[in-house]
Amino acid sequence: xxxxIAAPFLEQHVLVRPGSRGGALLPEARYExxxxxxxxxxxxxxxxxxxxxxxxxxxxxxxxxGEFLLVRQPSTWGYGKASWEVNLGxxxxxxxxxxxxxVNSGMPWEDKRRCLDIMAEAGVLFLQVSGGEPTIDxxxxxxxxxxxxxxxxxxxxxxxxxLWRENLLRLFSECPPYRVTVSxxxxxxxxxxxxxxxxxxxxQFVQGMNVARHARLPLRMxxxxxxxxxxxxxxxxxxxxxxxxxxxxxxxxxxxxxxxxEVLTAQSKEHLRLRKTFTGCNAGHxxxxxxxxxxxxxxxxxxxxxxxxxxxxxxxxxxxLGCDRRPSDASHRRLRRMRALRVLPRVQARGWLExxxxxxxxxxxxxxRRDDPLHDLFEAVVENAGNGRFLPHDKDARxxxxxxxRVLADAIEHDQHQTLIPTLNEGGPHTVKxxxxxxxPGSLTAGADLARKLAAAHxxxxxxxxxxxxxxxPEEYAHxxxxxxxxxxxxxxxxxxxxxxxxxxxxxxESERFAVFADLMAGDGFAFxxxxxxxxxxxxxxxxxxxxxxxxxxGPMETMSDxxxxxxxxxxxxxxxxxxxxxxxxxxxxxxxxxxxxxxxAAYQLLQxxxxxxxxxxxxxxxxxxxxxxxxxxx
Length: 635
Fold this sequence. Notes:
By secondary structure, this protein is an alpha/beta fold. It is globular, with a radius of gyration of 26 Å.
């Protein structure tokens, strides 16, 4: 069976490995090369090297392609993801369940297999299998295996009650899942059995989790907070952390699939969180949902205008999803992207731009890793220009509903000597900023001229120019002008532990004490952060108390997958009140944050510090790597 999958994914090509969160982007030419290979040929040297870099436990030397690689064929439909409820039945009777009446019915096996064939033909690479409880379905195991053999990366959403079964474990060992997402309904037998309305459910859950962790399944917990278990939210979080399993907390319920509101009474009112305003998504365009009876809709929530795959419409029915979408749309989008990128040709960008990019920095995204797919990131920010959507790996998505900064694609200037990439930021005072890549004489002057011209054209009150200096340049060149890009690699461990006790904000004896700190440190962003903390929309914030006073804080503590699929610890607000500096509190907070990131699976952190500032000196003392400097000045 295959160990790797090479496949088109949306408008890119990827190399992924079942059971692994990581992956690599493939240039189209390399993908086509793999398509043309005879299974009896040896692995190309470039592929063996790339795989060894991404997965050091996988050696392709002297292996035949057919022994390890499955190449997915292109699809004219352009879908990349799908979800599938294999049934509506469940061995629990949870009070909050959006399924309402749980009827264990569905398609016969032949129709299920036909649906999976259609998904593969439509281009689906990532498939979420759910229910009801999927593992109780009579066809779950052969449906899972069949989807896996078609070359899908499978996420199983389960209550975990049957993960101890040997046949399931054997299946997951032979055909590794991309992820197993387990719902968690309490931290004690009383609350868990009460919410699920099943005696013994807690015991089954704990048994399943113990076996699954021992089997090293790629687990992720979905902590469901309701009226029954609201008092145990932190206990559930603590249990996940003691298990070393990543988690997400869900507090807001949704009506049943037929519109009934009865399950909303299960919500814990004090845990409800403000949701972002819906601004649109790709449902129906690059994603679709399949229910147990073969009916396709744009997603789990939008179930109107369902399309019957077997035995009626087949794959042609997908053309009616997402505003009369046609197979040729993918080609049209690719053509529009190529036109937008005509000023940044692929060969020139790879052959010239990357070597002179002294700092790995992408406009509108900020610093990235040197080994990230840089050209693809540049393509993505140009293609995304003007639509207000966030890219999946954009760190700013946690703060706002729409992307305020965009690349002015039509104004990019590129030649063999320099590249000027302008952006317009419409959040706050409108600002045009030109990013200058290249160090030929006159580059900064050219960038400033372009910034002033575009600021006038777009009615922006500010014009700026940004340029970059490598880590080998004297830092005096960046004093007063820029920031240093800092890199923390968690492969080397989290570093020393804090010697002063650090608390989660929610552990403070009186949470209102943080309000005083936030007000005094408003200039460091803590007033803004405190608003988000009160709304419950951000991760943990670590704090230090001096007596009864909040002396310092760092947060929010959150991770996000980057463009290569690695978990990244996101930058935090970080500060210590002036009167408490010099006591080691800043160092303790920093070390606690690094331990949090390491414990939650982060591969690294990237951040920017003011050159010569307190945080800059702290990062240097803690052994972070400098990737260079980002300078800015008025044009």
